[in-house]
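Box 3.1 A note on notation
Throughout this textbook, protein chains are presented in two layers. The first layer is the amino acid sequence; the second is a token string describing backbone geometry. Keep the layers aligned when reading.
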Amino acid sequence: MSQSPTRDFVVGLFVLAGLAAIAWLSFQVGGMSYRGPLGMELIATFDEIGGLRDRAPVMIAGVKVGQVKEIGLDADGTRARVVLDVDPGLKLPIDTAAAIRTSGVLGDKFLALEPGAEEEILKPGEEIDRTESALSLESLIGKFVVNSDEEKKTK
């Protein structure tokens, strides 16, 4: 049985193409992409981020304009500090609001920016003052249970 080097080369190319396709599919399904640094960092602080992760999309009106760069605690250690990396061409007013929203069936989190109406524009490194924390289903259920227990006690 003699083996042909051409056949081995073709089989090798086929295997490499298959591995490349699997890698590409993994990145697409995982929602990971690398576009490099976008250029303008903004900061927002939240009481609750509810599962927001690094590299989560930042969107305006459903259009991706950046991603979450870093998540940590603020200087006091009491609130979540989120660093956003957004398109430097954006002209966001200083009264822009940031809200954590849920998309999709699986509940993927993203950060939605809602531009305001002021004429003054946010500069790189500035903080978005108006924020809306993630809606926590567990805390809503807990409040509902507590309220229903209080209603039963008052009757």
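Residues 1-32 form one domain. The mean pLDDT is 85.
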